[in-house]
Amino acid sequence: MPLITEKLTSATLRFQTSEKIRTGILSGSLKPGERLVERDLAEQLGTSLTVVREALVQLETEGFITKRPNSSTYITQLGRNEIEQILVVRRVLEGFAFEEAARKATNERIRILETLHQGAVEAARASDYQAYIHADLLWHDAVWQTSANEALRGTLRRLVLPLFGFSAIRVASREGFDLRQDAYSHLPVLEAIRKRDPEATARAFDVAYTAWSARLLEAEPTSAANAGK
Fold this sequence. Notes:
CATH architecture of the largest domain: Up-down Bundle
Number of strands: 3
Largest sheet: 3 strands, antiparallel
Helix content: 55-70%
């Protein structure tokens, strides 16, 4: 089935291309584990291979697609065991990153976090699913950056991005998922960072993370296929 029915002619081809592919993923037209063939995408979207490759790089940074060692590109797929393992490690590493952010946050970094969170809230209020996913990822990454530990930030990006993209497909696309509730769950965390209170930040993060993890595992069947096979 063609991904879209009209050609792209705007100067913002890379943005439009990534948006069209992302929509295909989130709508279920493109399934987790499905291979993406660059030439086929370029033909369907009426654009060049270069633009498609640039769009795929963007989607990889968002966790929606995964590059395999043979250079093939697939829609991110994680099995339940992988998800559970990543969740355990992420809780420890990201919890530490949030604590460090509270210790090291400058007034400028706090303003950045506030602005990014407001962007997520506005996207949630508008029920703009794609904009919310993007804003939420930017917010988390900004907190990691505020921790002033690039090794930690890099580790979290490698660990979390595939989970982030996959969870967006599994959780937020479910009927009844409340984007506003998810966005507002970050408020206690942000408030604790504002106060430069690492312990309160860790507690607020743990509450929000526990609820989010439960929603993700609810959405993932126990018989999920193992990824990478």
